[in-house]
Amino acid sequence: MLKLLFTLLLSATMLVSADDAGLEWQGEYAAAFELAKEKDTIVFLAVNMDGERANDNAAKKLYKNKVITELAEGTVNLVASKFVHSKSGACPRLGGVTCEQHQRVDIKARGAIFNPDGDAEVIAPHHVFLDKEGTVLLSVPYEVRAEELAWCFTTALRLAYPEGEFAFTKGARAPKRVVMGDVTKGAGADTIRPLTEDELEETLKALQATINFGERARLVYSLIATDHPDAIEAVERELITASIGGGRSGRGLGGLGGGLDRLNEAKRTLIHRMGIYSPSSYWEALVPQLSGDDEGVRLESAVALEQMAVPESLKELRKTFKKEESDAVRRAMVRAMGTAGAGDSGTRKALSSLAKSDKDQPLQLNAIFGLGNQGADKSVRKLFEAAIAEKKSGPTQALVLGIAFARNETLIDLLVGFGAEQGDWSKEIWECVEAARAVFDGGNLSGLREHIQRVCGDTVERERFFGAVEKE
Description:
Layout: H1 6-9, H2 29-39, E1 43-47, H3 53-60, H4 66-72, E2 76-80, H5 99-114, E3 126-130, E4 136-141, H6 146-160, E5 179-180, H7 197-209, H8 213-223, H9 229-244, H10 259-277, H11 283-286, H12 295-308, H13 314-323, H14 327-340, H15 345-356, H16 361-371, H17 378-390, H18 393-405, H19 412-416, H20 427-440, H21 449-456, H22 463-466
Parallel strand pairs: 1-2
Antiparallel strand pairs: 1-3, 3-4, 4-5
Helix pairs in contact: 4-6, 7-8, 10-12, 12-14, 13-14, 14-16, 15-16, 16-18, 18-20, 18-21
């Protein structure tokens, strides 16, 4: 019989978080899974690299976060890094294991989980949760916040032990990058990984030295996943130069001729990729683009900010929303406010006002969708219950999809309330209900993509949320 509350009852001898030392890692890959079987628990694997801010933050702060260390007392933990930090003794960067041990874990994890058939690079940071047999439960590539990683711990336990009772910690929130049942494998041609400090320095020098349009684009694209002030400054400079460049003497993305269309297309492509790969620290490079002349650039900027979900961007989003004339951009800005303002009372008030007005139904539906990010707020629940009672297809579809998109557990009872059978619900509503339920049953957000595009009226891809579209 499963140990229903074993996360609270495991012996302190299993994994100890002494003082502020953080997580204590197991030193051997295979032995960790044997221990997980003995303890009847899951395995948490952290992949870390040197010389990049998100990785450094994970090593210095995330793995020492009180909530995370307490949750990790109920799991078996492994850390993988190919770097050497000390020739002997415990690793000064990751602690608890030697560098030789975390290097061996790195080799084993690459072969068993990330890349069994090749030698492609592994994105780091990368956090993976596996059951005691080694099956991936879920994973998160790139940066992850403490409240997001906390959600992952609890969700992984629920997936591994569906009969157990595992409550979310206060403030836990699903990361939008979460991949259920798999990992983001390799760093192929369309995947961008953070650069080390040495690689960053080399890339910036190369960028300064070339005026070739294609080469500059390639170099800038390689920067956008790197959380470093110099990388952010270089990317922001390219965006600004593209917006004012035009002659062959320029050195920005737009400084090599081809006309205004080419300039804006270059900016749209760069901004779109930023929405997929860039850390949240890049938001300041994007907000000036919300006021640009090209509608496509403004649209891509709003979509990128939606995917970054940075609270600090709210002020600019609200200001530019009031001035924006394009319906498509206004809808995207509302969705961006929804993710950036998750749990924010001002955002909740603004979106609720739009959600109650049917003067512009497409905008209304996007506002309702965005309210799904507002947690357990009573006013949002009341608004959603009223919409469901009216059985209007658009609003009901939008709220169902919004709840699932946010993985908002506090409103899951509304999905249960639709019943087990379609009954007199319309086909359009019922399809959304089934897709939403699939997410809460352990599915990826990709199952919502087409429904959200249809209901919200926006076909700009959001790969950070829904994954890459399969190429035919």
